[in-house]
Amino acid sequence: MKQVDTVSTWHGSDGSSPSTVLENYNLIYISVNSSSFHEINKLVETIGNTALPVLYPVVLIMMHLSLSECMSFSKTWDELSAIKKLAKEVKERNILVYGLLLNYTKDAEKWNDAVENASVIALSLIKDRNAALTGQMFVV
Known about the structure:
By secondary structure, the chain is an alpha/beta fold.
């Protein structure tokens, strides 16, 4: 069994869930420039319908890569509020949902630092499995 699975889409073209997703306790869902709240919700539902969270907390980190320099703050805030609400609801089912916002910069050194910081945060969230932090959005 792999330690962490990275997911960029929760379903195949036929609507089926990838079997690897259902075999992992640690998932990182990556989206670029747009929210995938509907897909996140389906992924959480799929995880909740397995025996995984009964045995051990499942960690789902939603990593949002923002490549746009003119991203709408109000739209982002609405999406973050929805994610926080979802995280609070599924925490009772032993699914721990965290958010990680990574803003792209053209400066290679700053970008490398941001990616390294995001990796450290993700590793810490997976290792600690702190239920008190569910629904929080970490900005790097």
